[in-house]
Amino acid sequence: SGSFPYARSPPDRLLGGLLPDGLDERSCRSRYESSMYRRNPSRKPPPRLVAKLRKHEELQRRCGPNTDAYSRAVQQLRAGESAAEPPECKYVVSISYRGLGNRILAAASAFLYAVLTDRALLVDPSNEMDELFCEPFPGTTWLLPRDFPLASHFNNFTIDTAESYGNMLKNKVFRTDDAPAGTTTTQPPPAFAYLHLDHDYGDEDKMFFCDADQRALSRVQWLVMRTDLYTVPGLFLVTAFQEELGALFPEAERDAVFHHLARYLFHPSNHVWGLVTRYYRAYLARADLRVGIQVRNFDPRQAQSPLVLHQITSCVWTHKLLPEVLAAAAAATEELEHAVPVPGAKSTAVLITSLRSWYYERIKGLYWDRATATGEDVGVHQPSHEGQQQFGKRSHDGRAWAEMYLLSLCDVLVTSGWSTFGYVAQGLGGVRPWVLHKPANLTSVPDPPCFRDASMEPCFHSPHVYDCKLKRGADTGKMVPHVRHCEDISWGLKLV
Ligand code: GDP
What we know:
By secondary structure, this protein is α/β, with parallel strands linked by helices. The chain folds into two domains: 43-265, no CATH class; 270-458, Rossmann fold (3-Layer(aba) Sandwich). The protein is 34% helix and 12% strand. The chain is built from 16 helices and 14 strands. The mean pLDDT is 93. Strand 11 (466-467) and strand 12 form a beta hairpin. The structure holds guanosine-5'-diphosphate (GDP). Guanosine-5'-diphosphate binds next to helix 4, strand 6, helix 15 and helix 16.
């Protein structure tokens, strides 16, 4: 119909039941309009996941801010006391930390953990987390109230914090039921535990991924989590969670866990949605094919590197993701023949996202200077070039979110290995990307330049390497068939 111009099939506004009905459309236009912009429909959410989400929304309403249960739980925390067991409501607080891609992966990981452990998820509103996204749960807020007693300490929570789970284990303040016989486990649990699941975490912190530790943690009313990682593959290795995870994400959906979580949780706020839709309509909507290329240079010396440019073009040309340009001599004669549009030739729009404009200028120049062998026209666009990563600046984060989302609306994706920015785009889009290897040095192009990823799932960059049952080091990429090592980071883990 005329009002749904971009989707290939009639849009399914609630994404097969993934989204709850009854939320206000005007306060969050993206929730109901995104299906009009997506050509690639979402994967069908598993029925058990849909049922669990509706139940979890109820829990969020029952335990969330502005409820009696929340007030009582906060009082308990202020008093430094553990709640009567079992407490009526338990919580996971997710600290907002590092780049936007990291923050999105962290919130998705904390949410799945909350769902598995029947806890309410509350997201730290700092770092614009309150302005970039709509509320995901009807009738309540997922934002942690600003007067939360521990909020002023979040910045001081590090690997050394005494209340971290790892340090409480080390200092024997806290014991698991796995402790040697004869030690008591009946001591009351602490009022809260800080879960340090940051990339620099230690062996004790990593015990989080063991069953006995999860049993111990289940007694703690408040868990405050700091992570910059996509810990979901680690949750799939906790035996106690495996049955439920198997039901929520049956075998065919294990490569789409983040896809479902992200489409459920992360809806651009109206301001960001304006950035997305205006850009999409102006530059991408009319093309037959949209190719997104995300260029993330972790080494600033590669902000303008002919070698990286060569890596990108050889990736897209070898795999025929974009038409090749003709050599200069051939182009001269060919151009005359193609002076009128080639009947039936496809038009392609390339969306480049990058902090700088150098690669965009070069790739755009290539397609202007030379004709393509097929006579296809290639338009090259880049929404912004912010120069460098910035913190705490509202317009900067809004642009980053809009660009991740625009990438997710592309039909084909080329991403930069190691980048959580690209992971979010591929997961939201439901697209298995081509991934540019992170260059090992400044003097050579990785060979091959890119690889086709095994799944659209993000990589868990710093997993534990421990067998909880045997209590010794182990390769966690070899424990279950659907959790494997990543190709961009060989020690990382991903769902496939
Ligand atoms: P990662 O560092 O690549 O894993 O991704 P993050 O999103 O966690 O952090 C990078 C941050 O740098 C982003 O959140 C943005 O603030 C900024 N950034 C990186 N690449 C881009 C880009 O292509 N476009 C925009 N607008 N910002 C970017």
